Every structure is written in C-alpha cells, then in structure tokens.
Predict the structure.
Amino acid sequence: MTTFYLDMDGVVADWDTAAEQFLGVPFRSKPRYGEYRVTSQEWDRLRAQHRFYRDLPLMAQCEQLVNLARNYRDQLGWQLLFLTAVPHNNDQPWAFSDKVLWAQERFPDIAVHFGPHSTDKWRHCEPGDILVDDRGDNCAAWRAAGGTAFKVNDRDLLLTIEAVTADLASRINDPTRQLALDIY
C-alpha cells in the first residue's frame, strides 16, 4: 500500500515558535548550523522542559496540508501516517508519548510512527511513497529510496501546499503517473 507521510515538527507542529518563545531567542536571527538551530546550552534548557512536545502550537496552514494528505487516503486509497523522530540524543523521555497525545488530540485519524531518528525516516519509504518534511537531508534520502518528497521551507507551508495540490491533481487525473516535484 502506498503511504503519504507527514513529518510533525516543522510541518504540522510549530516546534520553532514554541522553542523561540521558551528560550526568548528568535532563531531566524541566528546563524544556522546545518538544519539544527539551537546551541547545546539552549537544548539543555529545552530538554529540562520535559513536556515540551505536548503542547506545541499548530503550524500556520497545516490543516490545509493535512486535508490534502487526507485526499490521498480518501480518494486514492493510500495510507496516511505521521512520521516523526525522537528528539536530540533521545534525551526527552516524554517526547514519544507527548507526540502521540498531541496528534491524537488534533488529528485523531492519523497514527504516529517514529523514524526512530530523523536520519532513519528513509527506511520507511517504499517506491512511490510521499514524505512532507522540513529537512532537506530527509527529503534527499527519501528520494534516493524511491519516494517523492516535498520540502517545507522556512516554516512556510504555502509552496508545499501548492506542490502537493498539483501532485494530487495529477494522480487523480492519471493515477498511473508519478509526479516528482522537488521544492527547495
């Protein structure tokens, strides 16, 4: 069965905004190290907030993206899952249950699967599966495994929504055609 996977943090859950508010530091003004944006000292503060993942706010426009993903399930017969990762160094033991509780409260029709680590997400990919993720390395590994990946850029879901909409329309109009759109 073909699967549509949605990442959680940075795609439907606004991890960055919650971290910025908790730390009092806007990430956009900081230099980026790869795609990881907090220092080890900042991470120590976040890690001490044991239930951090429980109450993350929704990303703007995420409900529109989730509804599009539901169309893959409802119109094309795909499976729809969240595919998330354990936090940095797996050092927040409540994150597993809190991510599941978060999703159950907001999107009860979508089950949560874990990578378990972000770099393991590609292992879930079967040829033709779709992943929406905010990390370029996850998207590249997904494509290398034979799937289609849509990258969310700078917390802005609008371009991703447009790309997923086009992909869905192409599949509904010609379900045998695989449209691989790469958004960077």
